[in-house]
Design a protein that fits this description.
This protein has 216 residues and is mostly helical. It has one domain. The protein contains nine helices and no strands. Helix 1 runs antiparallel to helix 3 and helix 3 packs across helix 6. The radius of gyration is 19 Å and the shape is globular. It starts with a helix and ends with a helix.
Length: 216
């Protein structure tokens, strides 16, 4: 596909991402139960929000092009695959574990679907269609774990200080440290396995392409 088409799709994805994140910010401020400062602190304490911001930044700089350093960074197959892993986990955890815990309506429902379903799907499709995933290496997986590990540590530490936790499966107030740590470890294991699966997919697609070249 032509470069212009890739940039156009990246632009649409970036606009959807920024719309979802910014609208969610306004909604959480409008419906806040604590001070604005604490509300903002909580807003940026969600893995969903942090990851969707990363996705929006990624698509923004892919649209702007590789003339920018961040454009080259986000276009790197390892970087984009890591982001694909993170946003896929957002979709999996929400739709499997968290969706049943509340029933948003109106604009909140629209934003909710964008953040947890539409944008993860867009990233996966973009990854499959455009990312040079045949360049992925098994060792990439260890670097990809840094962000989720740091986030989990941060979530537990800030929860210890503020007594507020972003997700029920790490809410020490309700389930205790042992269960919270087990759950956090479980999520990290899923991220690790998903990372391996995406690398394996890249290598499989490379083999298929090589066979096509030989056959051709």
């Amino acid at each position: 596909m032509q470069k212009g088409s890739v940039r156009f799709i990246a632009l649409i994805s970036a606009l959807l991402g920024w719309f979802a994140v910014i609208t969610q910010l306004f909604l959480i401020i409008d419906n806040r139960e604590v001070s604005i400062t604490n509300t903002l602190f909580r807003f940026f304490g969600f893995f969903t929000i942090d990851t969707n911001i990363i996705v929006a930044l990624c698509f923004t700089f892919i649209f702007l092009g590789t003339k920018y350093r961040l454009g080259r960074f986000f276009s790197n197959p390892s970087t984009f695959t890591a982001i694909t892993v993170y946003i896929t986990i957002v979709g999996i955890v929400y739709n499997v574990i968290l969706r049943s815990l509340w029933a948003p309506t109106g604009l909140q429902k629209t934003v909710d679907e964008l953040l947890h379903t539409v944008i993860p799907a867009l990233v996966i499709i973009f990854w499959l269609a455009f990312a040079p995933i045949e360049q992925l290496k098994w060792k990439n997986v260890f670097a990809w774990l840094v962000y989720p590990i740091v986030y989990m540590i941060y979530a537990l530490i800030q929860g210890y200080i503020t007594k507020w936790y972003p997700y029920p499966f790490v809410d020490v107030n309700e389930i205790g440290y042992n269960k919270a740590l087990i759950n956090a470890g479980g999520v990290l294991l899923i991220i690790f396995l998903l990372s391996l699966a995406l690398i394996a997919t890249g290598k499989l697609m490379k083999k298929i392409d090589n066979k096509k070249e030989v056959a051709g």
